[in-house]
Amino acid sequence: MLSPTLFPYAPANVCRLWRDLLAIEPAFWTRIIIVLDSPSTTPDLVRSYFERTRDEPIHVWITRADNKSATPSDPGENDRIKTVMRCLRPHLARCVSLSFNLLYRSSAVIAGDRLRGYVPRLRILALNSRVTDSTAPIAHLLLDAPELHMLELDAHSFAHFAARKLAMVWLHRPRASSAQLQLRLTRYQPAATSSLQMSDVVRALEHMPDIELLSIRDVAFASPADVDFVDREIHTLHLEELRGSAASMFFRCLASHASRTTVVRCDLDGEWDSAPVEGRWLRLVGLADAAGLARAMRGWSGSRLHADECPGFTDAVVSAMAEHPAGEVEWVSIDNTNSASPPLSFDVLKSAVNAWTASLLPHGYLTLYVQQPGNLPDAALCRWFDDRVGDFSWKNDGVTFDSVVPDVPHPVDYYGCAHLGRNVSPHMY
After folding, report:
1. Are 94 and 57 in contact (CB under 8 A)?
2. Are 425 and 390 spatial neighbours (Cβ–Cβ below 8 Å)?
3. What is the DSSP letter of 426?
4. In the prediction, which pLDDT does 40 show?
5. What is the DSSP letter of 16?
6. C-alpha Rg value of the chain to the nearest Å
7. Which superkingdom does the taxonomy of this entry point to (predicted)?
8. Which residue from 127, 154, 175, 276 puts its CA 20 to 30 A from 370's CA?
9. Rounded distance, CA 123 to CA 181, Å?
């Protein structure tokens, strides 16, 4: 999507005649891709990108061609982003989306300090960087963006906005759009020990409008000093690559429960007894700490669980979930095909099924999918699961046992999906 070889850039490079013909229609050029590390990206070329669009609304990506190097280095990036921002600033009011994918955080600070004014069309603003070479705040970002729908920036900059309170006008006025905000807090990994507290981010959330999605990814937090509670409605929560007790601290700070929660490759240190992991729909990916996961899942009050390639999803976790089910568990999917965890034992799963089915409301329906190495259950055990689980599937090394969807005692509208086979649950649609 962001390759400068896409239309109209590739045909425009064929010859001057093609370039002149394409320049006649400004709508062809409204997707502007500025590659910072390209030697051909000169100030004149950048200005020409904006001039070709005339007065059309524009989508701008300021990015890098080489963003995968293990040892990145580009001492000239700061100067080039200053040049690009001088060319961009007169056209900010026309921006519908504005995305920075930079190498250094210091370059993102430079760009942010030059974002000011009324931007009535702006719906997406992303300020991302790979290397935290600076802990300086974005001091002068002042945007009035009444249509902003998605904000993506490093967690330290976001927390600094809350401390200043007047950094972004759109935080403090009703937005024209009824759409909720998607907030993505991205990489902040300073070389020295981070001073950023989870409570700093929580306080910042108090100044936000209703949040449709909150993502916190690859952020280094200091050891917790205090706990603040956020009374903010969050529909979807995504936590990824958080170290130490950052994940447990966030759930302790969350006054309301997210409807959908995803936890990806996070440490699970800290105290979970007073605030287990939350989410009516919960997805766990790549979690390795079996003891921490057992503490986090004891008291989970959701209904649907997907555990994907979690080495820590062991018998102890299943037992902790089944010990005192806090919710009506309707769907459990466990895929440990490629993880290093030992296979779940049949006896533990049987105890869990008994506990989960006992917590269901009348006419409740439990779905259980298991994919893991090891032996398949024998015929008698398959019948046991089939009798108690509405929809049951066990897969191992290419061999599968699937139950038949049972007859239900009341009419079910399958929305035309009955032809999909035996594994169609009336509660999936």
Report:
1. yes
2. yes
3. T
4. 73
5. H
6. 26
7. Eukaryota
8. 276
9. 10
d(CA 1, CA 92) in angstroms, rounded, equals 22
Which residues, in sequence order, are bridge partners of residue 400? 395
> Using the 8-state DSSP alphabet, how is residue 268 labeled?
-
The answer to whether the bond into 8 is cis (omega within 30° of 0) is yes
pLDDT at residue 169, as a whole number: 47
pLDDT of amino acid 208: 77
Question: Six-digit token pair at 171?
Answer: 């935080």
Q: What pLDDT is stored for residue 361 in this prediction?
A: 78
pLDDT at site 4: 56
Between CA 103 and CA 114, with CA 108 as vertex, the angle to 5 degrees is: 145
Query: In sequence order, what are the residues at sequence separation of 6 or more whose Cβ sits closer than 8 angstroms to the Cβ of residue 271?
Result: 245, 248, 252
The confidence score (pLDDT) of residue 164 equals: 65
Predicted pLDDT of residue 414: 34
DSSP state, 169?
G
Q: Which structure tokens are listed for 187?
A: 């990489």
81 neighbors 107 (Cβ within 8 angstroms):
yes
Rounded Cα distance between 100 and 151, Å, is: 12
> According to the model, what pLDDT value does residue 225 have?
64
Residue linked to tokens 């802990």: 135
- Residue 422: how many other CB atoms lie within 10 Å: 10
H helical segments located in 153-227: 155-164, 198-205
Q: Provide the terminal-to-terminal Cα distance of the chain, rounded to the nearest Å.
A: 32
105: left (phi over 0), alpha (psi -120 to 50) or beta: alpha
Residue 61: which of 82, 34, 79, 87 has the closest Cα?
34
pTM: 0.86
Q: What was the pLDDT predicted at 409?
A: 44
Is residue 170 a contact partner of residue 144, using CB atoms and an 8 Å limit? yes
Tokens of 240: 């990824």
Residue with tokens 């959330």: 205
Instruction: With a cut of 50, list the residues of the chain below it in pLDDT.
Output: 1, 166-167, 169-170, 172-173, 405-429
Q: What is the pLDDT of residue 398?
A: 65
Cα–Cα distance between 376 and 378 in angstroms, integer? Answer: 6
- Vertex 367: Cα angle to 276 and 267 (nearest 5): 30
Write the single-letter amino acid at 319: S
* Number of residues assigned to the chain: 429
The CA distance from 319 to 31, in Å, is 53
Distance in angstroms (rounded) separating the CA atoms of residues 8 and 29? 7
Q: What is the pLDDT of residue 275?
A: 80
